[in-house]
Design brief:
The protein has about 260 residues and is mostly helical. The protein contains 15 helices and no strands. The longest helix is centred in the N-terminal third of the chain and has 14 residues. The radius of gyration is 23 Å and the shape is elongated. The termini are far apart.
C-alpha cells in the first residue's frame, strides 16, 4: 500500500504527462515543507517549472536533485535543457557532454546530441554543431528538427546536395511544414534548379500565405530568369504587403521602376 507522499508523486507524474503543469506544480508546492525529499521529487518539480518557463527556479531544484543523487540522468538532462533555454551555452554544453559520455543508460541520448548541436550552433561553431546533429540522426534518422538544422549547416559548409537530401527526407516526414519547403526552395535556387525552387516556394506560400520571405525569394527567382516580370513584381508586392519594412522586397521592386 502506497503512502500519501508516494501517491502524490504518482499524481504529479500523471499530471505532467497530461500537460497539466500548473496543477502538478501546486501539489509540489504543497509538499515542499516536508523533509527528506527524494532526488526524483526535485527533478519532477524542476521539470515542471521548466515547462512554465520559470528557468532560474527550475535550475535551483534540478541542482538539488543532483546533490541528492549525482547519477540522476533525468535531472542532468533537464538541467541541460534549462541552461540552453537560459542561453548559458557553455554551461549547457558541459552538462550535456558529460551526459553523453556517461556509461549510465540515457533514454534521451538522441535529444542530448541534438541540444549539443544547437548550443554549438548558437556559438557559431558549425563543425561541432554538425558533428553532434549527425550523432543525433545516427540514433533517430527521422528526427525532423535535427534534419532541418543539419541541412542548414550543410548549406553553410557548401554541401548543397547533402542539404537537399536531408530536406527532401524532412519533407517526406512532414510535407506541410512551410519552413522545410522554404529552406528546400532556397537550396534548390543555390543549385540553380529554378523550377524545383519555384515549386517548393509556391508550396510554402500555399500553406502559409503571409510567409513574406518566400514571396520575396520567389520574386527574386522570377526576376533572375527574366521570364515573368509580372509574377516577380506580384511576389515582391506580396512580401511588402505582409511586411512593409522588408528591404529586400522593396529594393528588388524598385529596380523595376
Amino acid at each position: 500500500k502506497m503512502d500519501l507522499y508516494t501517491l502524490s508523486l504518482k499524481e504529479i507524474d500523471e499530471l505532467y504527462n497530461n500537460k497539466e503543469y500548473k496543477k502538478a506544480i501546486a501539489i509540489c508546492e504543497g509538499l515542499l515543507e516536508r523533509e527528506n525529499h527524494t532526488s526524483n521529487f526535485f527533478n519532477s518539480y524542476g521539470a515542471l517549472l521548466k515547462q512554465v518557463n520559470q528557468y532560474e527556479k527550475s535550475l535551483f531544484y534540478l541542482n538539488k536533485a543532483i546533490e541528492l543523487n549525482n547519477k540522476n540522468i533525468a535531472a542532468y538532462f533537464n538541467k541541460g535543457l534549462v541552461l540552453s533555454n537560459l542561453k548559458k551555452y557553455d554551461e549547457a554544453i558541459r552538462v550535456l557532454e558529460d551526459l553523453v559520455n556517461t556509461k549510465e543508460y540515457n533514454p534521451n541520448e538522441c535529444y542530448c546530441y541534438y541540444l549539443l548541436g544547437m548550443n554549438y550552433l548558437e556559438k557559431n561553431l558549425i563543425d561541432k554543431s554538425t558533428y553532434y546533429l549527425e550523432k543525433s540522426l545516427s540514433i533517430n534518422n527521422n528526427f525532423n528538427s535535427a534534419l532541418i538544422n543539419l541541412a542548414n549547416n550543410y548549406v553553410q559548409l557548401d554541401r548543397l546536395d547533402k542539404s537537399v537530401e536531408l530536406l527532401e527526407k524532412a519533407k517526406s516526414i512532414d510535407f506541410k511544414n512551410p519552413l522545410i519547403l522554404y529552406n528546400l526552395g532556397n537550396v534548390y535556387e543555390k543549385l540553380e534548379r529554378y523550377d524545383d525552387a519555384i515549386n517548393a516556394l509556391e508550396e510554402t506560400i500555399n500553406i502559409k500565405h503571409d510567409f513574406y520571405q518566400a514571396h520575396s525569394n520567389l520574386g527574386a527567382i522570377y526576376k533572375k530568369q527574366k521570364k515573368n516580370n509580372e509574377k516577380a513584381i506580384f511576389h515582391f508586392d506580396q512580401a511588402i504587403f505582409y511586411n512593409k519594412n522588408f528591404d529586400d522586397a522593396w529594393n528588388n521592386k524598385t529596380s523595376y521602376l
